[in-house]
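User: Need the bound-state model for flavin mononucleotide:
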Amino acid sequence: MRIDRCNSVKGFRAMAKARLPEPVFHYIDGAADDEVTYLRNTEAYEQCDLVPNVLAGVENIDMSVTIMGQKLAMPLFCSPTALQRLFHHDGERAVARAAEKFGTMFGVSSLGTVSIEEIGAAICTPKMFQLYFHKDRGLTNSMIERCSAANFEVLALAVDTITGGNRERDLRTGFTSPPRLTLRSLASFALHPRWAFDYFTHKKFELPQLKDYVKEGSNVSISVGDYFTTMLDQSMGWRDAENVRKKWGRQFCLKGIMSRADAKRAVEIGATAIMVSNHGGRQLDGSRSPFDQLAEIVDAVGDRIDVICDGGIRRGTHVLKALSIGAKACSGGRFYLYALAAGGQAGVERALGNMRNEIERDMKLMGCRKVDELNRDNLRFR
Ligand SMILES: Cc1cc2nc3c(=O)[nH]c(=O)nc-3n(C[C@H](O)[C@H](O)[C@H](O)COP(=O)(O)O)c2cc1C
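Assistant: Bound-state model below.
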């Protein structure tokens, strides 16, 4: 299989599955409990249909959007995700460079594997940093200050990880970060020699946003669920979120808002955006999908804050459907993570290119020249 033959997220997923050791693949691909929410996140888009207009003169399409004051050349960006150098040795570097080529935004996680400083110095496209609110306030504050110094444009506070989700695939495979060297994991590495060679011959795996503060930042193997449960501050409340916003003082987003009431409070504390998200189904299984919940949120706050629909996106039409409901942009994780695993920067470029082509083709077929021409009239629920 070759990345230039991957025309869809499905193709990249198959390639990632073949290339990655089993525990690493299932860490990306898996979700919480029975994965009902994870499946629904994509299914929800398939339960409504687009109603195209024609004869609209669509030779020139403008798919750019402006969110949180950042102009993006396409209405889809790469959500922050953890541990990227486990998936490909270039990790965040590859994703950041690919996003830059496509003029879109990307996120770096608190559990990222390339430093805030390196990304800040190398990358010009808009950069989002995703903050976990640690019990250790020194650590939380240091990340805010480092992002500020490195000129990140957007800070996104994750609000849906107050405790670890029950990722049963990780329990089954024994996934930890960094990978624990057991007989079983060594066998899995042996079956994926190319991944193992790349992993062991490149710069040592570490979590540079954490390493000066916690031993989990470098060499203690821990599951991500356990990390959330032990390291993050479960007392976090609205006042804390507001204080983070004030300390940061730039574009501020809450990632993981699902209820109308919380969306309104996000406006009250001065957030400039919310990501409607259930963390890709990895936290509360049985929670509603972002697309199902989108109209309610847009109706409540869409005129006062940028509403981003995060998760489940596997096709350009999914993006068009979310924009038709009133999202200002969409974001996703797995659509680019499978591609990162499949082929590093070239893989992510191909994934973003596929999505951009789909969005462009679909906008033309919808008779739509600009993103803001999409509206609820273009959609019918079955
Ligand atoms: C492997 C993986 C790691 C993730 N790590 C983080 C993270 O560190 N911080 C965060 O806020 N969200 C994280 N997410 C959630 C994504 O930001 C995003 O919300 C989710 O992937 C959207 O669903 P999708 O994968 O269906 O697009 C992660 C998701 C995946 C798949």
